[in-house]
Amino acid sequence: MQVLITGGTGGIGFAIARQFAAEGHNVVIADLQQDAVDSKVQQLRQQGYQAEGIVLDVTDAASITSCANRFQVDILVNNAGIQHVARLEDFPPEKWAQLINVMLTGPAMLSRAMLPAMRKRNFGRIINIGSIHALVASPFKSAYVAAKHGLLGFSKVVALENADKDITINTICPAYVKTPLVERQIADQAKEHNLTEQQVVEQIMLAPMPQKAFIGVDEIAGTATFLCSSAARHITAQTLVLDGGWTAR
């Protein structure tokens, strides 16, 4: 099967790409920077895996159309994400819009472009990478939380619309994952809260989590591949939460 992963050069995205490739799928790594895409594709090919790459801007309609025309994917993983931490009154409006476009509108429009071919073939798997912040909120993350909450609703609606075919749409929602994106958040939150970075990790990020641990990218990748297995063929419109017990409180 052909699998396209947006944000495929990042920590979570590349872990997902590597896991699908290891299971014998043809992986398409999609991201904004050609050099990064080429590097990650080469890494997979050197390991004997099937991999291709494409420069894709999920906020650009022409870029999405070009991608859909080039690849008729069986599995779409909407993973591309960005973050900005600030009080709402200090949040640049253009940055707020950018987060919504990348993490909500982008997945919607890319799914829209890929679904007709999936429906024609009577098979498709769409996996949206959400966040614990699709379920709970944190201060200074209004755009991110809004986008991820919206992604859950979007996923459920599209799953219902395509339930007449062998197409499933689900959302994976991990708690904090130690990626470069989160590393930058630690520094930003330390500034906003007037704390040390270690205090941010202990008092903010891991404090609500009973297991007190970051989620591993391998856990997310394993969940993604499970959702594409025959054992998960009737799992759709669901939210799979990897949160170490956070939302049980």
From TrEMBL:
InterPro entries in alphabetical order: 3-OHbutyrate_DH (IPR011294), NAD(P)-bd_dom_sf (IPR036291), Sc_DH/Rdtase_CS (IPR020904), SDR (IPR050259), SDR_fam (IPR002347)
Gene3D superfamilies hit by this protein: NAD(P)-binding Rossmann-like Domain
Domain of life: Bacteria
Residue ranges crossing the lipid bilayer per the database entry: none
Cross-referenced Pfam families: adh_short_C2 (PF13561)
Family the entry assigns: Belongs to the short-chain dehydrogenases/reductases (SDR) family.
Protein name per its UniProtKB record: 3-hydroxybutyrate dehydrogenase
